[in-house]
What does this fold into?
Amino acid sequence: MSGRLGILGAFNRPRTLNPLHQSNSNCVQDAANVSNSARYSKLERELNNLKEENAKLRSELDDSQTALKQLIRENSHEKFDERRINQLKFQLIQLERQIAILNEALGCRQDAVLEVENAMTWLADKLRSYTAADTKGQMILIARGDLTSMIELLESARIKLFKALEGTGKNTVGKDLIFMNPFLGGKYKQNEPLSLLDISLQRMDYINLRHVAQLESKLCQLYKELIRVHEHIQNVKPKSLSVGHMNSAEKDRSETMLLKACVMLKDVSDDLMVLSLLCPSSPWPVLKRPLNKQVSIDRVIAALPALPRSKQEEVTHIIEASLQTCNHRHLLLTKQITMLKEELAFHTSVYDLEMQYMQVLFDAVRKGYGEFETSARLLICKPLKDILDAYKHLENSASEDAFREFLLIVKSNEEQLISVVETLDSQNFDSDETGAMAFSKFGEEFMGKINSLVRKCQMKEILH
It folds into this structure.
């Protein structure tokens, strides 16, 4: 009876506790709703944070692109070397970003491969433990839990390996190349992404041959324009090249031709620069012999400790690459020193020419001033001295002969004195005449000699 009552009580208990059970279910549902709302709020906050971060990254990207464009185009009249250096900086920035992405991809792939290797090692050890057990017959019993753990481990390693391979593919790690010059065609013209890996692998499908033909046409036009400039310079008289003696029409024509040639040369240089950056090739031959015979690959390897056979080839390759880099660096430094010596010799010759120029000018000034003193002595000092001597003689003697002699001296020097008075009289010049023309005739002669010497020195500088 007690058992029946117990059973009946068990059956009747849910009915008596139904309201309590319903209240518990309502509490659970409310807790689930609160949990869902909290999760939704958290996801919404994360989404807002990601949107803000995305906007910030987009702004940084726009700023970087603007800075790069400014780096390339900020000065249209910069020198070719400076423009090429800016282009190289821009290319190196992109290569550094590509190398960073490749390093990260290789690191992810290495971690995935290491995870798979650990999983396979654990699985191999586990299976060896089963085969080594003292079990008779061809069948081996494996616990369900062990088999489940094996499957889960292998599936986890497979998923990680798949994600690593998917995230380190060419389309994923290949960074798009940014062009600042519309010269190239191919993929770039078809709005297809061109990565730095395409350039590193020497793929030429992104280069449009029609644009290369246009570059050849530009070079031909530039060559013709330079020939015209050369013929124009040859036809111009040498005297007209000096300052102040060139006809305005000839000067305008020369400036127009030179400006046109410079614009064409800048256009062609930009295209060639971009082409040389995308298809790099060393302008010097391969250095088969080291510049320093004392440092060779054999001597470097002999100085190293004993290496395993698996590492010998890799170490030899690294040493060869390092020595080649050092040899090329030494070659570049040698060429740079040679160019600096040539530039020093050029500047020395220019300074010598300037010293000769200044020496000739100083000699001309000394000579002109000496001639001016001699002329002033003959035209001014000598007649005045003769007149003063005759006047003193007349004052001392007061004779008729002395007076007659005084008058004769004045009469003989009358023309010279009149010429001096007319030359030195400021009323014969306009009010806007400069002070350099006060001694009209002497100044003209002196300045004429200076101008002739200046033109002669300029012709020497042009011929030099």
